[in-house]
């Protein structure tokens, strides 16, 4: 981040490390690396940054208002989309995080995502902001 002052947010690769039983897994992530690939994923409704691995340029994030606290869900995805509308974001090709997967988690669980009205509202806001992304 110190060498790339034009980058607002950077994430990294991660590995799904343990499952709901605590057993090691070998699943490898497939997150996109380039800005263009990340934006392409955003357009499909996919958050292409792994939040646990993300680092921010504080000044740039404050410039866009930080997290939108009016959203009940998807605050991280929304922040990344708003940052990408103004600044460069990306992932580095190095695994710096591990992720636990279990069936009851909100994203990636066995039953999938079940948004209530507040979640649908947040998703609609994020979709609207994604539609405004250039490129």
Short structural summary:
By secondary structure, this protein is an alpha+beta fold.
Would you mind describing this structure in some detail?
It contains 4 helices and 3 strands, in the order E-H-E-H-H-E-H. 31% of the residues lie in helices and 20% in strands. A 3-stranded mixed beta sheet has the order 2-1-3.
Secondary structure elements and pairings:
Blueprint: E1 7-18, H1 35-43, E2 55-56, H2 58-63, H3 75-86, E3 88-100, H4 117-131
Parallel strand pairs: 1-3
Antiparallel strand pairs: 1-2
What key attributes describe this structure?
single chain, 135 residues, alpha+beta, Spore Coat Polysaccharide Biosynthesis Protein SpsA, Chain A, three-stranded mixed sheet, 4 helices, 31% helix, globular
């Amino acid at each position: 981040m110190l060498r790339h002052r034009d980058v607002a947010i950077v994430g990294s690769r991660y590995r799904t490390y343990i499952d709901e039983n605590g057993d090691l897994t070998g699943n490898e992530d497939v997150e996109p690396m380039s800005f263009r690939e990340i934006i392409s994923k955003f357009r499909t409704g996919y958050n292409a940054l792994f939040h646990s691995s993300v680092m921010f340029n504080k000044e740039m994030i404050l410039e866009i208002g930080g997290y939108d606290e009016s959203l009940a869900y998807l605050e991280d995805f929304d922040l990344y989309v708003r940052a990408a509308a103004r600044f460069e974001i990306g992932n580095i090709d190095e695994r710096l995080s591990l992720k636990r997967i279990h069936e009851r988690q909100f994203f990636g669980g066995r039953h999938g995502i079940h948004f209530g009205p507040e979640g649908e509202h947040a998703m609609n806001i994020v979709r609207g902001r994604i539609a405004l992304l250039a490129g």
